[in-house]
Batch of 2 targets.
Target 1
Amino acid sequence: MPALGYYTNVHNTALVILQRKGYRVWTEQAGDRICAEKSGWDFMADDPVQLLGLISIYEAHQPAAHREYWWKIDEPWLYESIPDTAPDYVPVWKRK
């Protein structure tokens, strides 16, 4: 069992983290989308965990100004090279 996995019980934790980071959060489209904004940069996702992930991309890039595809990293292209088995490691919950 992983130390943390995606499930809806993580949503509130993601919202608290977003609030602590200073983002204003609201729902849009009859509650189907969740949005956040800070300093004029706005984001939209299907759930709070996705929203936190998108904001992590923004925070990693720290763009000075908006431009098309400001978030994109093309190299190295890693998606198809993700291994289909886990590396050897000792999960934190098994450590003594």
Target 2
Amino acid sequence: MGVQDHVVAVEIFASNAQGEGGDLFMAVSRQCGLNNADSLMLDGFQMLAMRDRSVLPIDFPPLDETGRERLLAWSAAGRQLPVAEFAARGLYDAYFLDLVIAA
């Protein structure tokens, strides 16, 4: 198994609903371990799953510029990030994570 076998696939979806400020959520594969986190830290273009200020062993692909900017704007608004875990048959689990920006 290569390094890519352990990277969690992530998609960040945003809408531009007029008058509502838009919406954002992150989709991940089911049972990826992210539901053990209480926050998601953004450090440059890297995301780190955190629990009680400790980094969880979950590897994410680097963010692209668009995803990073969306998450930074969402964090600046003080909102929690909705996360949806999907399986082949649809939604498996859903929860919220705090967004933390690394200094």
